[in-house]
């Protein structure tokens, strides 16, 4: 969006001039919704990174037209729709006998979705008819950024001891977004793949994983089932500000964001920082292995950054794929660039996932930090998986200043045979010297 947005009314009129053009239908709807929000809501500026959320909501919404006098909302009906008027007007009759008029740009039906109550007004089309965008409540709760922007208050979920109101979006993961929780030093990760119509979502974090407590693990406080989804309530990390050459600072909450920030400046993460990342993540992995679990998805996106007393702490997060150590996998899971061979070749009867699988992934992360390249790469996922099974990593890419201990760890931990990878005492010795 430009620094000075166009006049909302003009934008609405221009966007609606040629509704028959199917190729621009989605963009037309996006333009209308953005313009209406700028015109009516306190939260005027919609960050570009949230645009996709709005597109998804609009794709799933219904555009409806009503002739003059036709009913739109009946008093007492379920409050599961939010309406945005973009052409014409509507007339509402309140429970106390009053009358309310709603013009172009008005958002109707705020309170029922917020309070989970039936509609308290009746609404009919005005004298010239009306065209509306009808947004289902389930689509609002699926995208909390849109919910907050349209309704003026964050999505609220009920925890064991208190209610949580979702605030700003902190990031977007493979399974769903992460939001800060207003009034608490906590965050909520939403697992969208659990969402269903009226179906109770299955737990994505086993109950015993909630008991894991370690300085290098992002603590999970509880899981909440609401709106057909799973909300993981966890500690929020402060992140680290990295100053760029142009003087701007980038707030990095994950290692992936840190890598990208340095990459944008044609730099790589320092050797000292790489050693710190290894120490902290390796310590976290030793702890969870001691507790009887394997993480199975160690990657930069799941390594968070916190700062405590001016000390940078790296913490392992996202245990949605964690399961008991030395268990046979039932399906291929993980992230292709960091996936160990045994997590891919699951049809072999002797295949089990041990703690060494996590250290294969950590070695792949360290390799990327040192070389600014992944161990193996391909646009074809099957080809990439085959490389993890057959190809040898190019250790000559490691920079000449790579510490000897780090180079040996990467070489040994990336072995195809789990039995040839470093053992627990080896990792403990490496942590001591790193």
Element layout with pairings:
Blueprint: H1 8-16, H2 25-40, H3 51-59, E1 62-66, E2 71-73, E3 81-94, E4 99-102, E5 107-108, H4 111-115, E6 121-136, H5 137-142, H6 144-151, E7 156-158, E8 163-172, E9 177-181, E10 186-191, E11 220-226, E12 229-235, E13 240-243, E14 249-252, H7 255-264, H8 271-290, E15 293-294, E16 303-308, E17 311-316, E18 323-324, H9 341-344, H10 355-371, H11 381-390, H12 404-413, H13 424-433
Antiparallel strand pairs: 1-6, 2-6, 3-4, 3-5, 3-6, 7-8, 8-9, 9-10, 10-12, 11-12, 13-14, 15-18, 16-17
Descriptive account of the structure:
This protein is of the alpha+beta class and 434 residues long. The protein folds into 3 domains: 8-139, Jelly Rolls; 155-235, Phosphorylase Kinase, domain 1 (2-Layer Sandwich); 240-433, Transferase(Phosphotransferase) domain 1 (Transferase(Phosphotransferase), domain 1, Orthogonal Bundle). It has helices spanning 8-16, 25-40, 51-59, 111-115, 137-142, 144-151, 255-264, 271-290, 341-344, 355-371, 381-390, 404-413, 424-433; strands spanning 62-66, 71-73, 81-94, 99-102, 107-108, 121-136, 156-158, 163-172, 177-181, 186-191, 220-226, 229-235, 240-243, 249-252, 293-294, 303-308, 311-316, 323-324. The strands form 5 sheets. Strands 1, 2, 3, 4, 5 and 6 form a 6-stranded antiparallel beta sheet that branches. Strands 7-8-9-10-12-11 form a 6-stranded antiparallel beta sheet. Helix 2 (25-40) packs across helix 3 (51-59) and helix 8 packs antiparallel against helix 13 (424-433). The longest helix is centred in the middle third of the chain and has 20 residues, at 271-290. It is elongated, with a radius of gyration of 26 Å. Mean pLDDT is 82; it is low at 1-20 and 193-202.
């Amino acid at each position: 969006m430009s620094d000075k947005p166009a006049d909302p009314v003009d934008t609405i009129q221009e966007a609606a001039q040629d509704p028959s053009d199917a190729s621009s239908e989605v963009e037309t709807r996006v333009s209308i919704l953005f313009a209406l929000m700028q015109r009516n809501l306190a939260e005027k500026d919609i960050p570009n990174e949230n645009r996709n959320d709005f597109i998804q909501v609009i794709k799933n919404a219904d555009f409806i037209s009503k002739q003059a006098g036709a009913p739109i909302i009946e008093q007492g009906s379920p409050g599961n729709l939010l309406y945005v008027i973009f052409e014409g007007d509507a007339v509402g009759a309140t429970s106390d006998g009053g009358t309310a008029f709603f013009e172009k740009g008005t958002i109707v039906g705020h309170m029922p979705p917020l309070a989970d109550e039936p509609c308290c007004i009746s609404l009919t089309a005005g004298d010239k008819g009306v065209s509306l965008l009808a947004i289902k409540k389930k689509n609002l709760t699926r995208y909390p950024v849109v919910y907050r922007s349209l309704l003026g208050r964050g999505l609220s979920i009920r925890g064991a001891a208190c209610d949580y109101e979702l605030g700003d979006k902190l990031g977007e993961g493979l399974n769903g977004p992460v939001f800060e929780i207003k009034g608490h030093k906590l965050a909520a990760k939403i697992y969208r793949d659990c969402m269903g119509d009226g179906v109770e979502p299955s737990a994505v974090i086993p109950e015993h994983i909630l008991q894991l407590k370690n300085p290098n693990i992002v603590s999970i406080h509880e899981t909440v089932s609401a709106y057909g989804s799973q909300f993981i309530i966890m500690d929020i990390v402060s992140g680290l500000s990295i100053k760029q050459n142009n003087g701007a600072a980038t707030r990095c909450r994950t290692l992936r964001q840190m890598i990208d920030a340095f990459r944008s400046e044609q730099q790589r993460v320092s050797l000292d920082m790489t050693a710190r990342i290894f120490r902290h993540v390796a310590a976290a992995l030793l702890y969870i292995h001691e507790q009887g679990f394997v993480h199975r998805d160690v990657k930069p996106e799941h390594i968070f950054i916190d700062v405590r007393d001016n000390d940078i702490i790296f913490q392992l997060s996202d245990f949605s794929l964690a399961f008991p150590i030395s268990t046979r996998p039932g399906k291929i899971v993980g992230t292709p660039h960091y996936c160990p061979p045994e997590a891919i070749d699951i049809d072999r009867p002797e295949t089990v996932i041990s703690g060494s699988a996590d250290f294969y992934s950590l070695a792949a992360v360290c390799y990327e930090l040192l070389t600014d390249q992944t161990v193996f790469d391909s646009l074809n996922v099957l080809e990439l998986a085959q490389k993890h099974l057959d190809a040898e990593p190019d250790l000559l890419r490691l920079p000449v200043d790579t510490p000897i201990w780090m180079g040996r760890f990467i070489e040994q931990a990336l072995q195809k045979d789990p039995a040839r990878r470093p053992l627990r005492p080896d990792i403990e010795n490496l942590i001591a010297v790193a």
